[in-house]
Amino acid sequence: MEEKDLNAQLKNIVEPYAQNKEALLKFNDSSHFIQDLEVNSANLVDIILDVEDEFDIEVDNDSMEGMLTVEDAKKIIRQKLQEK
């Protein structure tokens, strides 16, 4: 999967939940879902569910707890896709 495609798909998933729209404009690997994008913890679960649907993967609890930045999410997505 192309890096830019993965970034675009992830940004589209996160966008409805991000409270800080200015930070969303600067969406990059170091963007922190809670601190930068101001996604609340309940919506973080929604993002993970949307990621599972979008990429047809299952994110286990350990992986879920480690998904705090865009880069974290991309690593987990790539790992789960390879496991398929």
TrEMBL record:
- This one is known as Acyl carrier protein
Ranges for domain Carrier come to: 4-81
Q: Do you know which InterPro entries this protein is assigned to? A: ACP-like_sf (IPR036736), PP-bd_ACP (IPR009081)
What organism does the UniProt record list as the source?
Answer: Salegentibacter flavus
